[in-house]
Amino acid sequence: MKQVDLVIIGGGPAGMAAAVAARENGLEDILIIERDNALGGILRQCIHNGFGLHRFGEELTGPEYAARYETEVEALGIPYLLNTIVTAITPDRVVTAMNSEDGVFSVQAKAIVLAMGCRERSRGALNIPGNRPAGVYSAGAAQKFVNMKGYLPGRKVVILGSGDIGLIMARRMTLEGAEVQAVCEVMPYSGGLQRNIQQCLKDFDIPLYLSHTVTEIHGKERVTGVTVSKVDEQRRPVAGSEMYFACNTLLLSVGLIPENELTKGADIPLDPITGGALVDESRQTATEGIFACGNVLHVHDLVDYVSEEAALAGKAAADYVLAGAAGDSPRRVIAAGAVRYTVPQTIRRTDKDVTVYFRVGSPCTAATVRVTCGDVELLKKKKPKMAPGEMESVTLKADKLIACSGDITVSVEV
Amino acid sequence: MYDVAIIGGGVVGGMLARELSRYQLSVVILEKEYDVAMGASKANSGIVHGGFDAKPDTLKARLNVRGCEMMPTVAAELGVPYRNNGSLVVAQDEESLAAVRELYQRGVENGVPAITVLDEAALRELAPAVKGIAALYAPSAGIVCPYTLTVAAIGNAMDNGVELRRGFGVDRIEKTTDGYVLYAAEDTVETRYVVNAAGVHADDIARLVRDDYFRITPRAGEYILLDKEAGCVVEQTVFGAPSKMGKGILVSPTTHGNLLLGPTATDIENKEDTATTYEGLQKVIGGANRMVEGVPVGKAITSFCGLRSTPDRYDFIIEPSPSNPHFLHLAGIESPGLSSSPAIAEYAVELLGQMGLALTKKTDFNPIRERVDAFRHLSDEEKNEIIRKDSRYGRIVCRCEQVTEGEIVAAIHRNPGATDTDGIKRRTRGGMGRCQGGFCQPVVAEILARELGIPLQQVTKSGGSSYLLTDKTK
Ligand SMILES: Cc1cc2nc3c(=O)[nH]c(=O)nc-3n(C[C@H](O)[C@H](O)[C@H](O)COP(=O)(O)OP(=O)(O)OC[C@H]3O[C@@H](n4cnc5c(N)ncnc54)[C@H](O)[C@@H]3O)c2cc1C
Ligand SMILES: Cc1cc2nc3c(=O)[nH]c(=O)nc-3n(C[C@H](O)[C@H](O)[C@H](O)COP(=O)(O)OP(=O)(O)OC[C@H]3O[C@@H](n4cnc5c(N)ncnc54)[C@H](O)[C@@H]3O)c2cc1C
């Protein structure tokens, strides 16, 4: 079996940034495996701008942002395989993949970085009643048709879900001459970024119906309309509140799910809330030598944070191959109060500052973020406003971490 | 002039076509939709019933027991996924226990092999997730993939010479001196014998020849299908015992490893209305939770609805037309029609023989059809051999179900060829996994356009005007 020091699964922004960081930290023998016909991941179809403000201090389009990393991967001469899908991995790091030239083959890796990204939730997961005609697409599939294939999936559109992809597609479809009649969101607030609500809906006078959902899809062959209803606090449709929209297309932007089939296949423990692996501060999973970063670990709203996280994972993977396992036993990071989850979920090494990312479960104002370890308060800060759609972070100082022991609690109180 | 025209490309028409293709006959299947298996045969529970449900001395009872016995062989010949997983009818109180005992008696009378009543402890041991005080256990019951069975039966029939005309909705029938002329909007077919296997429309077809003596009522059954991750909650097919509340919701693994919940039972008026409803889906969830512990209903990947052809008498209507010679009705084939289908075909051939159809066996009938999913069951070495010859087998198109381009192309070109994305789905499972085609539908559409030589904009989801794309971008 072929031996490789580090195999990176997925050549999106996470995979590329991990590869670059691993090489910069002294690792020579790296292989990126990507199932698509080019590097770049989901960014290839995100032709809008708004990428890279944090990372490069300028506004880039998705493909431009990806191109920066591709250039680095090429310049560093990091090998990659395209059109190659990883079909299985094992806990002792055998990677099995397939493509049309080499057929099915396996590689023994010393370390693996999981960077497979995420996929969109489908209609089925929502149990929307009605018919099953053509014209119901995930927003990402519609984005691929429009931006990469040059086809419009439909002309009269209703969008369910106000996640960022839905918002971006509302604008995109409008610019292509389609009529976007409404964006419906089952929650009383949008899960998308504030700037996208402004730039993609308000600027185009597209109405956003909060606490509303699609309760029936009409049309036998192609969508002819949808029924939209108000929902109560338990998200049950309210009888009598039905509105009918005639349309030929329904786009769904109802959440992203980290693509962890390979991870599950290798029995790597997952966090039921993020849908990604449980990791320590270096993004090592509970299985030694296997790391995870990017949207496969938890869904990020900005690619800049993906790159940042992937650099951590890439460096840690290089260190692991070159210097062996970091031995300290992990301390848990516990989400409390309004905090829904944290990444990382454990902290192993306390010789460096650790940034803990988290999201709140529902919007809050005048909140206090507190990080404690037993009776010791490690950090406290005020936040005027927080929303589930925006990822937050706290940086824990190494000297404070060393000075205490035991589990660390991150909480938000309102 | 055909010898036999079969109206309806469901599992009943399909199995009969295959049975007739053993003989020196010219046979045509006429199907109003753009693909086969578009009626009840694609949207049902997929259970091969043991045969304890039907009243003794009915066609239903006899053909079910016989069909259940034939199914493993037929499925193996046709390369269709079948699993003998056994079934449980669960009693949760004294009333339903009485019903279970009655079903046991019927089962014994109908000749269902090895049927037993399990007490609570035995039930717990066999199926720990099931909540009940007792259950009827039928080890001979199984599960089969119903649309794969239908596609394969028709494909095998076509390989043996049967013709298929799609988009042929019979709307007028004319009697001639030596047979019939069947009319569709833009086409006609002449035939000596006619078999009416039009499912929920069988009474409409009968009325075209003035047989106005039975009625078929569509009875809707809604389902929720869960992700493969949920598949292992139960091993057997679990039915609720019949009670005042009705027949109850079943929880069953499918042959592909998903978990199926359903069906409801609601009489409706429109024979084309397969929409799911909010109330229906809630009922399915409630029913499943009542009977089985820990059903992860949140892992739904799709929901759907099928229409039972409920006749106005207790039994299947399998009989020659009383007033039209050479005209056979296979009507009112509600559950257990799928289980019975091989036996219905056998019996229908017998009846056609009695009606005068000359039955001379062919010498070159080939009962075997290669599995559609043959590729994924090969060893890595065998896969590599195929990939070396045809590199399209090395390219995965549907990521969730790991379906390759090679398999999709094969599904377009082998009998009966897929012509739309739903057709690809039913034949290869491409697009049937947890993302429901979110990733692969654009690619599948491109492959269809290329292989069929049509523009991408003409590719449909399910024939007719179910176009996927409406315009080019600016
Ligand atoms: C539609 C959309 C719009 C967005 N808009 C913005 C925005 O405006 N601004 C912003 O900052 N961020 C945006 N984002 C977020 C940003 O694009 C993502 O955070 C980022 O792309 C995630 O990077 P990733 O590498 O983790 O995943 P991906 O980009 O998804 O890359 C994963 C890669 O792994 C490959 N892969 C997966 N499984 C396998 C396997 N088994 N074998 C081989 N290869 C595999 C995939 O093909 C893919 O190339 C958007 C995201 C989406 C989906
Ligand atoms: C909810 C539900 C659950 C079920 N569960 C089970 C089960 O678990 N086990 C079991 O054994 N059975 C089950 N059944 C029963 C089984 O599905 C049916 O008995 C079987 O599929 C009937 O097959 P068919 O070929 O008669 O009908 P169909 O599959 O409906 O085929 C009839 C065909 O005729 C075509 N047609 C109609 N009119 C015309 C026309 N004018 N011209 C040309 N073509 C026409 C239709 O388009 C259709 O394709 C269930 C049924 C339902 C609805």
Protein architecture, described:
The complex is a heterodimer of chains A (414) and B (474). With 414 residues, chain A is an alpha/beta fold. Chain A has nine helices and 28 strands. In chain A, strands 1, 2, 5, 6, 7, 8 and 20 form a seven-stranded mixed sheet that branches. A five-stranded parallel sheet of chain A has the order 10-18-12-13-14. In chain A, strand 1, helix 1 and strand 2 (30-33) form a beta-alpha-beta unit. Chain A is globular. The model of chain A has no long low-confidence stretch (mean pLDDT 95). Chain B has 474 residues and is of the alpha+beta class. Among the domains of chain B are: 83-142 and 217-310, D-Amino Acid Oxidase, subunit A, domain 2 (D-Amino Acid Oxidase, Chain A, domain 2), CATH 3.30.9; 375-458, BFD-like [2Fe-2S]-binding domain (Arc Repressor Mutant, subunit A), CATH 1.10.10. Chain B has twelve helices and 23 strands. In chain B, strands 1, 2, 9, 10, 11, 12, 19 and 20 form an eight-stranded mixed sheet that branches. In chain B, strands 13, 15, 16, 17 and 18 form a five-stranded antiparallel sheet that branches. Chain B has a four-stranded mixed sheet with strand order 6-7-5-14. In chain B, helix 1 packs across helix 8. Strand 11 of chain A pairs antiparallel with strand 23 of chain B. Bound molecules: flavin-adenine dinucleotide (2 copies). One flavin-adenine dinucleotide binds next to helix 1, strand 3, strand 6, helix 4 and helix 5 of chain A.
Number of strands of chain A: 28
Query: At the third CATH level, what is the topology name of the domain at 83-142 and 217-310 in chain B?
Result: D-Amino Acid Oxidase, Chain A, domain 2
Secondary-structure-derived class of chain A: alpha/beta
Oligomer: heterodimer
The unique ligands bound to this protein are: flavin-adenine dinucleotide
Q: Which descriptor suits the 3D outline of chain A?
A: globular
Q: Which percent range fits the helix content of chain A? A: 10-25%
Strand content bin of chain B: 15-25%
Assign the CATH architecture of the largest domain in chain A: 3-Layer(bba) Sandwich
Structural class of chain B: alpha+beta
Number of domains of chain A: 3
> Quick one: overall form of chain B?
globular
* Low-pLDDT segments, ≥5 res of chain B: none
Mean pLDDT of chain B: 95
What's the CATH topology name of the largest domain in chain A?
FAD/NAD(P)-binding domain
CATH superfamily membership of the domain at 83-142 and 217-310 in chain B, which one?
D-Amino Acid Oxidase, subunit A, domain 2
What gyration radius of chain A follows from the Cα positions, in whole Å?
Answer: 22 Å
> Which pair of chains forms the biggest interface, and how many residues does each contribute?
A-B, 51 and 57 residues
What would the average pLDDT of chain A be, to the nearest integer?
95
* Distance between the ends of chain A: 56 Å
